[in-house]
Amino acid sequence: MTNLLGEMPHLAAAGDPVTVAERCHAAGGLTRTTLGELREELGYGRLGRRVLDEAAESLTLDGLGWFPAWRLSAKNDRPHKDQELWVFARDGGLRCQIISAIQEPDGCDVPAVLNGLLNGRPQDLSPMDKLGLIREILDY
After folding, report:
1. What is the distance in angstroms between the CA of the first residue and the CA of the last residue of the chain?
2. Which one of 105, 130, 136, 140 is most buried, by most CB atoms within 10 A?
3. Does pTM top 0.90 for this prediction?
């Protein structure tokens, strides 16, 4: 992840960039991080609304999404370095489709995505139950 100036201040001891984006892709498209790690990667010493906005923009430019979404928004009026969020690759795969169906349901075939996710799971789960399970994960 780079800051908006194009710098990558978060470097490993050997000088190789070790970014959240690289870690996410190396882990198969999903990784957990903290606001503190994102802040350090952008080269800032303190968290604030501007840092949250820049982290969100940087992740988006890297082709990544995150949840819970509110952690990098103005709704997070008390950001703390230990607050965790999940970062995922917006690669069009099933994981991305599921998260997008919940976060941005307009223009998405939500029932088809949910059925694809839970195909083979207990058939007694209604579409609303499936949606509830996913929302619990995204809002944790």
Report:
1. 24
2. 130
3. no
